[in-house]
Amino acid sequence: MSVEEQINILREELRQHNYNYYVLDNATISDYDFDLKLKDLAKLEEENPQYFDANSPTQRVGGEVTKNFNTVVHKNRMYSLDNSYSKEDLVDWEKRIQKIIGSETIEYTCELKYDGASINLTYENGILKNAVTRGDGFQGDEVTANIKTIKSIPLVLNESDFNSFEIRGEIILPFDGFNKMNEERIEAGEDPYRNPRNTASGSLKLQDSAEVAKRPLDCLLYHVVEASNKYETHFKTLEHIQKLGFKVPKAIKVCKSIDEVFNFIEHWDTERHNLPYETDGIVVKVNSLAYQDELGFTSKAPRWAIAYKFKAEQVSTILNEITYQVGRTGAITPVANLEPVQLAGTIVKRASLHNADQIEKLDIRVGDTVFVEKGGEIIPKIVGVELSSRPQNSEPTKYITHCPDCNTKLVRNEGDAKHYCPNEYGCPTQITGRIQHFISRKAMNIDGLGAETVELLFKEGLIQNYADLYELTVAQVIPLERMAEKSAQNMIEGIEKSKQIPFEKVLFALGIRFVGETVAKKLAKHFKSIDNLMNATFEELISVDEIGDRIAESVISFSQNLINIQLVDRLKLYGVQLEVSEMELKNHSNILQGKIFVVSGVFTNLSRNDLKKSIEDNGGKVASSISKKTTYVVAGDKMGPSKRTKAESLNVPIISEDDYLKLLEN
Ligand code: AMP
Ligand code: ZN
Questions:
Q1: SS3 assignment, position 127
Q2: CA 396, CA 179: separation in Å to the nearest integer?
Q3: Which residue in 158, 431, 567, 578 has its CB near the most CB atoms, within 10 A?
Q4: pLDDT tens digits, residue range 297-309?
Q5: At 221, which helix (H) or strand (E)?
Q6: Which string of b and e fits 154-186 if b means at least 16 CB within 10 Å?
């Protein structure tokens, strides 16, 4: 046997054992023998470097160090999931779906909702090519070297019948491994990790992949991108990917009705406590992939799936103190400082009290025994008071009247639940909060500058607002605490690089109240430049789709403020993108203005999403269901029969992908 053959046989043998052990949970060799064989292989590979293979089982131990993770734009966006909390929510969801696809009975697949960090894996010819985190859904970090160390992720598939495909799953840390890691940490005198989910997602961003290899991470798969090209149903997709070598949990069921779905939910609501890993709910998905294609996505989540969140766990503990936080918009949030208590796998020390009304309504007082609950949010909340344990000298809580930060008298506007500190441009927390928002990942994404450094820069008098960032020099920041020449340079380079960030993100970064990510995108697309936006009238603003009074008023009040006008002028001067670039303007037009499209089926030239984007970029609107208002239905292969009937009965023209492209040319 040649050395090459020997190497290949060992690799295949080890790969199979690895799969049996980590995916099927069925060991077919002792650890000792596995290690021996692995050592043999490593030795052969070392002696014969010409046969190196990045996907060899020997590469699982890691060793590659990544200093900066590459940002990768997702070919297909990674969406969130809408949440539901009751059977009624699910019934409503079904009604919404039926309205679109018009089917009497819909089949669902139910899966557990795995609580970890999502990952997008790309395979080419059966070999793992790259792994990218979800990031903001549009782009994430490439963490391939780290992912390769997770033993349940196949580096080479059992079958390789696909040229290229993307598959998604959740990186989790099972309780066992998590507890073991914590025991070691405590022994070493270090603080234990708070919970498995954060530890799992933190692990993906470790620079040294050998460190990741030491962590008992696992990966559970739940989605194949563009699966409808190959499979009929979601369930069949999951069945097949299991054969390919991926780990898919057994707790999956096809249900023929919402009643059946709910039985599954009720079963797992108690049974979940016996699982080896965390789950906070169930994900219900429309089983037919043709229906999934027809249903599509909202701006946040697929219409064809919904998460059901289990009712939160509750514990009681003592409320030691109420403190008050000032947000970047001046909103005051009361915070309960609690006697630390274990809740749903984490230690809770603080909880949100929302606002003055909430405190008054529940009559929450310092010294009380309170009930704490952990819902979907990261911060737990207080849901009630045990009145029978109230101390005798207890006094009602007096809400603060002045800002804890700048001592300005607080205001509370009609209709607002919260108190605000009106000292927008003088209150330190608001000033730093706005700058911290400006530099954050979804905004200007400035590398090398963090929230703490912003506070430091402000304290040292180096910045008063976000425009000041662009005047900072390396020499100015080096003397700062914990700053070195290299980190100072990184920071200034990061700021310089942010001048390339596209206008829509800059607009979000400005921190105009009520202008979140999605609204900023809409406004940028419509007005195309900051000047157009700041000169827009109330009527012009509300004429934009989905822009209401509240947002319009906020934009106008921002635009009329002299401080903001000056800030924006300065940003312009420094070269920050305050208009949509030439590149983005290309392929954009108003040709389809006023036309409403419904897209159905599978297309040959454009992907479904590209087609929709093209419609929107050219001024058209995409609707999910056919009505009298629909101008055209663009039909691809396998268009839903119910849609065809509906279009015909309403006399809505059905056009092909080619017809659509011709429409654009005219
Ligand atoms: P959320 O982040 O709460 O909006 O929920 C969406 C996330 O749930 C996705 O990004 C996935 O990472 C995660 N998830 C966990 N289990 C599943 C599952 N079985 N199907 C789909 N998504 C899941
Ligand atoms: Zn203040």
A1: strand
A2: 41
A3: 431
A4: 988 899 999 999 9
A5: strand 218-224
A6: bbbbeeeebeebbbbbbbbbbeebbeebbeeee
- Structure-block tokens of residue 562: 């002299």
Q: What is the spatial distance between Cα 353 and Cα 274, in angstroms, rounded to a whole number?
A: 32
Phi, psi of 333 (to 5 degrees): -120, 120
Pocket of ligand 1 (CB under 6 A): 80-81, 111, 113-114, 118, 134, 170, 222-223, 283, 307
pLDDT tens digits along 604-646 = 877 787 888 889 888 888 888 888 889 999 998 877 777 888 8
Global pTM reads 0.60
Classified as helix, coil or strand, 552 is helix
pLDDT 10s digits, 271-290 = 887 889 988 899 999 999 99
**How high is the pLDDT of residue 64?**
80
Rg, the chain, Cα only: 28
Q: pLDDT digit string (tens) for 386-426?
A: 988 899 999 999 999 999 999 999 999 887 888 999 998 89
Query: How many whole angstroms separate alpha carbon 339 and alpha carbon 552?
Result: 44
Ligand 1 atom index nearest CA of 112? 19
Structural domains in the chain, CATH included, are 3-56 (1.10.287.610), 83-309 (3.30.470.30), 314-389 (2.40.50.140), 428-500 (1.10.150.20), 503-585 (1.10.150.20), 596-665 (3.40.50.10190)
Mapping DSSP onto H, E and C, the string for 340-409 reads EEEECCEEEEEEECCCHHHHHHHCCCCCCEEEEECCCCCCCEEEEECHHHCCCCCCCCCCCCECCCCCCE
Residues 6+ apart with CB under 8 A from 21: 27, 28, 29, 34, 151
Angle between helices 562-574 and 549-560 (to 10 degrees): 80
Per the document, the length of the chain is 666
Phi, psi of 315 (to 5 degrees): -140, 165
Whether 250 sits among the annotated catalytic residues: the reply is no
Residue 439 pLDDT > 80: yes
CA separation for the pair 166, 131 (Å, rounded):
9
The pairing of strands 71-73 and 139-141 is antiparallel
CA of 326 to the centre of ligand 2 (A): 7
Q: Give, as residue ranges, everything with CB less than 5 Å from ion ligand 2.
A: 403, 405-406, 408, 421, 423, 427
Spatial distance between the Cα atoms of 314 and 329, rounded to a whole number of angstroms: 31
Span 334-384, pLDDT tens digits = 999 999 998 866 788 999 888 899 899 999 999 999 999 876 455 788 988
